[in-house]
UniProtKB/TrEMBL annotation:
A Gene Ontology term for the protein's cellular component: cytosol
GO biological process: monosaccharide metabolic process
Record-given protein name: Putative NAD(P)-binding domain-containing protein
Pfam families: Epimerase
UniProt GO molecular function: UDP-glucose 4-epimerase activity
Taxonomic path: Eukaryota, Viridiplantae, Streptophyta, Embryophyta, Tracheophyta
Superkingdom of the source species: Eukaryota
Organism of provenance: Lupinus albus
Amino acid sequence: MATLTSSSSLLLSSSSFNLLPLSHSSISRLSFSSSFHSSSSLSILPHSSVSSRRFGTHHVAFTTIASASQKKKVLIVNTNTGGHAIIGFYFAKELLASGHAVTILTVGEEGSDKMKKPPFSSFSEIVSAGGSTVWGNPAEVGSVVGGQTFDVVLDNNGKDLEAVRPVIDWAKSSGAKQFLFISSAGIYKLTDELPHVEGDAVKADAGHVGVEKYIAETFESWSVFRPQYMIGSGNNKDCEEWFFDRIVRDRPVPIPGSGLQLTNISHARDLSSLLTLAVEKPEAANHSIFNSVSDRAVTLNGIAKLCAQAAGRPVNIVNYDPKAVGVDAKKAFPFRTQHFYAEPRAAKTKLGWRATTNLPEDLKERFEEYIKIGRDKKPIKFDLDDKILEALKVPVPV
């Protein structure tokens, strides 16, 4: 049975993270019922002072004026696992800060062990900001949300048409005006010409491709977002942590290949700001695919160096040939081992979006959280590392 938690009052003071053209002239207090629709009336009361609320380590004061004709009712269908889980959390926070009504439907059960971990353990922030949280099966989305209807629906869960079709069909039949989908830049075909840009060839057998095609056939107003690797408070997929684990223990950091391969890491706040722009500028975002990435690439060796810089410690990088040492690089390393990066061309040209990702600073935030949860003291197994280092005759500190 789905659990619904909601709040009927939202105080918008300041929050979010280097927003684009989303700020307005004054801080307002918005009061609305939990059955808020875009046509509902709002009472707007002046708020005399501007305050800022911490989100991660970024402080931005901004203001919001609510207009009944501008504000949308948005449903976010959110995955309960992996690196994409923080997308729904950041997006919900940003939408609420901009005066929209938000319900976030998370796959699974509210009382499960997964919900005790970030970002789900911070969902109270969504409720306290005026949003609603529900849990259940996306295939039964209509009953999970109790028959509510929405202006905009985002699917941040399914990776193939079987998983997403029920959400698309329900959204269409219930009268949603706009459908947004979190796809993946991983569907691009390998190419000699980089970075990947919107319109480049994709893998025909990739599950996300079938979803993108069905959405375009079903909705008049739609947008697709293709993120890569993400960073941000509450992320529960090991990426930068993999490097921290080795750096804080003075262990060598084994990186496959030359280490000069380029990839792309973006802060989740950038994707949430891009999604919010699509909600607020549907005409500009319509029928568009957006690479949801930072506008700067980083080398694999560079990630290790930046993580060491964030930790204030030295780093010993060991580059190796996976075949020569007999390991599967996919199991031994958290990133793809070839060049893999895209350019956010459509986001900039169609929506006027700009990236705010700053890896040196963002990694400091992540390292602070790494220390806070005590992971630097936890026992970590390095079996594959030891196999690699033994084959290379690289000594490991005891």
